[in-house]
Amino acid sequence: LIEQYPLLLENDGSGRFRDVGPGRAGYFAEKRSGRGAAVWDFDDDGDLDIIVSHVDLRATATLLRNDGGNRNHWLGLTL
Fold this sequence. Notes:
This protein is mainly beta and 79 residues long. The protein is built from no helices and 5 strands.
């Protein structure tokens, strides 16, 4: 298995993303081997949360709750 630090990317407003994970504690400070993710509103508060599955020795899923508020920064389509 190849373990790497998880990426936490933030839009810098100029069409580029930067990794803001380094220096953060918790999940982003540990090397993991993530293999899948699902995005949905886990806590029904109007913003998207992420669950990541892993295949490393801990083999636990990690829920990343978005508690930053709903700022509507996404593209919506009606088909």
